Amino acid sequence: MVKSFDLRKATYKLGSFLIALSLVLDCRSMWTSTHDNNFTNMVFASLVIGGTLYIISSTKKHIRINLDFFLIISFILIYLLIYFLLPENIIYIKTVFRYYLSFTILLFCSILSYKSNDLPSFVRIYINIIVIIGIVSLFFWTFGSMLKIIRPDRTIFSYWSTPLGVSCPSYYNIYFETQLINGIIIRNTAIFTEAPMASLNFTIALLFQNLFNTGDRYHNFKQVILIICILSTFSSTGYIALLLLFVLKALLTNYKHKNIILPFICFLTIIAVVLVHFILNAKLSSDSGQIRTDDFKAGFQAWKVHPIMGSGLNSTAYIQFMSNWRSFNLGFSNTIMDILCSGGIYVLALYLGIIAFSGIRSIRLKNSSNLIYTILILYLFITTIFSNTYILYFVFAFMAINSIEKYDFARISTL
Higher confidence at residue 205 or residue 34? Predict the structure, then answer.
């Protein structure tokens, strides 16, 4: 008996995998910090090829898009194009092309994937990849970094946040030791440049898994792995994100006997607030906390120079406003001020507009999952640096598309 081969479905799966892989590798993986342009080009090619395959295999012969929805998408693309074509940006034509095309691809992939109460296939693959990375990192972190049973077999130079570069021990090029706590405890950074970046990826995967991928056969197992990974990074940002997720789920999710256990939920909320306060105080009093505070001050000062359109794409104008005592670390730590500095009110307004739109629609539609997702993404947007990454483009595209649930904006035929 000859089995039939579904070329369209195979193309769809391959496209989904390539998109998911590019989302992971582009978001501050160690290889992006080595100044290897070939790797950056490879990741971009993965997104373009994957996105093209995904779009071609997702669409059927007839695609009908509501006019209002078409106008909204057109406005967003033209709005961003105006910014990218500014004189200070167009000189970086290759970077402009890569950013604009990647955003457009991810936006259309999100639109074509739109289904109520479902996730795009590449997001499910993204979660699986992050979980596998997490399992591998926990193995090497436990038996290598902590117990010293396994030893690093090589080193890799990272130029993340330092122009001089720093040597990082590597385990078979699939796990890296990039940060210590008090020079003693090694933080689990997996394949990423630092603990906050590892925590960012684990947290985003957890958000999708916890809020939107509840029908997954291994739902709880994946959640446990991601939570343990976040804890092993020793990242205060990740810890607060976990507390926010648990508290918001308890407060906003409807379930049986909620009124009976409401006092217990309130008690847990109070404990969570106290813990967040403690973590923030400890963080702000540390060197890392002072750097983060200084980043907000430097970013604000740089923004005042060009408040409307910003200083330009990938601008580092904020460096001149950083305090002299931190010359050893000139890396920026939060996305919101980075975007405000480089894109001014013009670009930041688009991001904040999507957040406001998503929050308001989620409340009106009583969509607690999307509301929690919006709040947590806003939190990461303020506290973590992942500007101009594919995952940033996607989480905001997903936020906007997911907010139109129950409204027939886009009538699109998908696989």
Answer: 205
Q: What is the DSSP string of 30-65?
A: GGGGTT-HHHHHHHHHHHHHHHHHHHHHH--S----
- Which residues 6+ apart lie within 8 Å of 27 measured at CB? 192, 197, 200, 201, 386, 389, 390, 391
Q: Which amino acid is at 196?
A: P
Q: In the prediction, which pLDDT does 256 show? A: 63
First to last CA, the chain: 27
121 touches 12 (CB < 8 A): yes
Q: Give the C-alpha separation, 374 to 103, whole Å.
A: 19
- The pLDDT tens digits of the residues spanning 318-346 come to 888 888 776 666 777 889 999 999 999 99
pLDDT over 80 at 16, yes or no: yes
Q: What values do phi and psi take at 150, rounded to 5?
A: -105, 140
- pLDDT for res 58: 81
Other beta carbons within 10 angstroms of residue 255's beta carbon come to: 8
